[in-house]
Hints:
By secondary structure, this protein is an alpha+beta fold. The chain has two domains: 4-52, Roll (SH3 type barrels); 99-206, Kinesin motor domain (Kinesin, 3-Layer(aba) Sandwich). It has helices at residues 71-83, 109-115, 127-141, 157-172, 181-195; strands at residues 4-9, 12-18, 30-35, 41-45, 49-51, 88-91, 94-97, 196-197, 205-206. A hairpin with a 2-residue loop joins β1 and β2. α3 (127-141) packs across α4. 18% of the residues are buried.
Amino acid sequence: GSEKVWLVHKDGFTLATVVKTEDGSLPEGKVKIKLEHDGTLLDVDEDDIEKANPPSYDRSEDLASLLYLNESSVMHCLRQRYGGNLIHTYAGTNMVVINPLSTPSMYSEKVMHMFKGCRRDDSAPHIYSVAQSAYRNLLTTRQDQSIVLLGKSGSGKTTNCQHLLQYLVSIAGSTGKIFSAEKWQAVYTILEAFGNSSTSMNTNASHFSHVVSLDF
């Protein structure tokens, strides 16, 4: 079939098809494409196009599994998944989480137990699968585990930290209820009162670093 590509431009990327031409009919470094949405024919620089994946990869659970790994294809996959309320996507050993700006039903004790004891390879992308993977590695290797959350202000780092803690406390349990998700939430409410403020990007931005340690 015809080769599908992304035309990269200042407003993002647009799906197009490469049009075959006679040798020498275009200047060196140029390629003719046909835009998918309106059929416009354009002669563009080879550097301005990136290979597009077949439609079967539109909602890939792992970005590392994409046939063609480039910025446009990654963004397209994330956008397609987000449109289907799939906000978690593996990226090799990492995970990308897009802030849904709401509290979806995918976070609950019932959902937690769906991930309990599962291997990462058998789990759908979810913040709970990250917690389960760390907990499983802790038990099998008897070595400390770390989960690092990175992102801009308002991307959901604090919220996902809460989800991780809730999972670990719920699944691992706590002797004599010394520690619980409710107790952590109470402590964090105090920290939040002193360390959070409103910014242009986040109405409740954390202005302090979180280093949370759980001893098992």
